[in-house]
Amino acid sequence: MSTDKRILLIVAGGIAAYKTLELIRRLKERNVAVRCVLTRAGAQFVTPLSLAAISGDTVYDDLFSLTAEAEMGHIELSRDADLLVVAPATADILAKMAGGIADDLATTLLLATDKPVLVAPAMNVRMWEHPATRANIGTLATRGVMRVGPGVGDMACGEFGEGRMAEPDEILGAIEAYFRGDAAVMTPSQGAPDRPRPLSGRRALVTSGPTHEAIDPVRYIANRSSGKQGHAIARALADLGANTTLVSGPTGLADPPGVTVVHVVSAREMLEACRNALPVDVAVCAAAVADWRTSDEAVQKIKKNGGGPRTLELVENPDILRTLSLADNMRPGLLIGFAAETEKVVAHAKAKRKKKGADWMLANDVSPGSGTFGGDRNVIHLLDDGGVEDWPPMSKEAVARRLAERIAAHFTDAS
Ligand code: CTP
Fold it and tell me: pTM here?
């Protein structure tokens, strides 16, 4: 990179602000002059002193600072730079940029500048995916604002997904590419943020929810599964581009967008619908299939008729996961099951993986104290040929996104 470049780095308020110290250090190594503007929220995450020490320049953080105005007005601050970089670019600062709001030094500079701007977004995945942020990114793109990232991964908030600020190396790469006149970086992205779709061209099958096994026309055997985990997985796979079929037992959930949903009631119907969905590249059996049904479903409502205790004779339901594993040339390329356990979670899941012929088993604790069944969070241990991977506690949606990413990586590695 040419040594006479000057960058005005705007540091907004996000946990990723600490990464900007490394970015500045790398830019300085290349003899690029970096001057920092720190927002009020940014100062909660990184101190003006550390930015000043690493950049070797004054840090500007107050629009109305008389000293700053006397030394260098805000117009001069941006006039003096070859490129403005906003890192981390929070949902808030992107919204202000898109809306033309100038209520502090950073946003005033961004509104007043005629210099190119590169943003490195950083925020929670839900904020990144929110239609408001998408619209703002689209607006900024049409105005020529360049963007690097965000990436996909674990976030400080415990979620997993798109929204992590690009690493300092990536931001440096984007800055270097800009100064080289690299068209790919200089072309603003169009409209909504680009989603990586590594599973496009792949077919996925997901089972979800409980099954209901009729005893008579008004009674049934069921369990406490909500379907939240399976539905979130179907959505996450579709989000990554997979052509996804969700076979769902009775739940109170809305059909996930972009997914073909087949509604079933009983285990046998679920098996039939799964068979019809084959062949698939990946199947995730997240349903809590009822293990038993009555041997003889009564056609009419069973009457009490007084007398002693009644007995229900139960027969075992087909095991859908095991049936898929034995489906010869129709066996899904990657077969994933869940092991719902209330004790010895990993040990039981290991045995279950073998018994059912699954490639991966996601073990989770469903004991009453865990809050897994019906709740919004889950603690997963992923078992495969290589051993056990312990995931931190996270929301069921974060589990779904992490699993979908891992499935995508599996196919990328295999090809
Ligand atoms: N499963 C299935 N069909 C069944 C029962 C279970 O496809 N009839 C799948 C579940 O979707 C899950 C895995 O098998 O992916 C393990 O389910 P789980 O309820 O943990 O185990 P069970 O087979 O019911 O064994 P157990 O009740 O002895 O723990």
Answer: 0.64
